[in-house]
Amino acid sequence: MRDDKKQDKHEAITTAAYALLADKGYAGASMLSIAKAAKASNETLYRWYGDKRGLFEAMARDNAQGIRHRLEQALSDDQDAMQALEQIAPLLLSMLLDDRAISLNRAAAADPSGELGAAISAGGRDEIVPLIRSLISRLAIKDTDGLNPTDLFVTLLVGDLQIKRAIGALPQLSQEQVTQRAREALISFRKLVGLA
Amino acid sequence: MRDDKKQDKHEAITTAAYALLADKGYAGASMLSIAKAAKASNETLYRWYGDKRGLFEAMARDNAQGIRHRLEQALSDDQDAMQALEQIAPLLLSMLLDDRAISLNRAAAADPSGELGAAISAGGRDEIVPLIRSLISRLAIKDTDGLNPTDLFVTLLVGDLQIKRAIGALPQLSQEQVTQRAREALISFRKLVGLA
DNA sequence: CCATATCCGTAACTATGTGTACGGATAAAC
DNA sequence: GTTTATCCGTACACATAGTTACGGATATGG
């Protein structure tokens, strides 16, 4: 299969996997049902991904790379650091809480091995946090009372929304709610780091 | 069976369920394996709890009630509100992140129906948040820039620790780490609500 | 002591998932 | 056109889970 056709099939497979994950949970998102929905075969899934967890780990890496890529695209060279944070805060929040990211978190919570969770965590650590930290390090922060400003920023932005979404206690946020939350997080963040 | 013996058996069942949940995930924590580990029978579990999800919902309610009860016990009448918050912040954080609470979150994330998540969320809303809100309403808060101080407090205290714990990306925090995090949350909280 | 209710251990029924294997079909490279 | 590699659809082996049913054992109340 040519690379572009293979890429299309990979896309169909992961799209099917996300839909089944959202609808039936990790246990109910069987490899056979994913293959059928993607119009691929069982044998192909095992050949490409190794096993069920291998498929979901690939999806987690794709998702983290996609988030970093979109954050990078949203930045431009002529913004100052605070403008850049204002730019990406709602975007980051939106992506961390969208159905795909949440479905992956649910799969990781259901996976007893912990390996899928490790893949998601590595995605955050390797792809997203460095970008945030880099922006925050350009701010003229005066005082943080010994707190880590990157962690503080993420805490204020995301808080417990991911776990609420993952357990189904919170529906998808509207774009307005996302924007509002991001704005409030930045107000609090500025106050706490002495930039208000 | 007498009530106290039944209570003992209920305790054995839920203890077994937590252990299997932590070890094998929600799917692997089968009703048969829980019954065996609790030295009860399959038929008894179905008679008492209805079905698998009924068992875990009962555990979620028990857990929320237990958290509220321990918080109430930690408070005394002669503390002012800030002292009371300082008292319960590390305790609340510790309980929200302990293995039992996290196991329930993982079960809820794995449950495609959303009902287990609804039970956990109701526990938070009905048992824990009112207590926090009541304490915070006694504070002489000057200004919150339109933010909800109860939500802010919980955001600063818990942040994304629950989802990290649920996906296995973070081990159990030590008591020292819990205390430190609670202290930092309260410093930030005071600053943000004009009590610093 | 007897009657009743409940628990226990196991079997049975139904269902589904993971992962491998296989022969035919198709795509791709030479 | 031929050879090789890969995909597809299906079958298969193995395993396990949710839930109900049943007869004997035990606990409880009168």
From TrEMBL, chains A, B:
The HTH tetR-type domain, residue ranges: 7-67
DNA-binding region(s) from the entry: 30-49
Record-linked InterPro entries: Homeodomain-like_sf, HTH-type_TetR-like_transc_reg, HTH_TetR
Source domain of life: Bacteria
Pfam families for the chain: TetR_N
Molecular function as annotated in GO: DNA-binding transcription factor activity; transcription cis-regulatory region binding
Keywords recorded for this protein, A-Z: DNA-binding
Transmembrane regions: none
Protein name according to UniProt: Transcriptional regulator, TetR family
Source organism: Thalassococcus halodurans
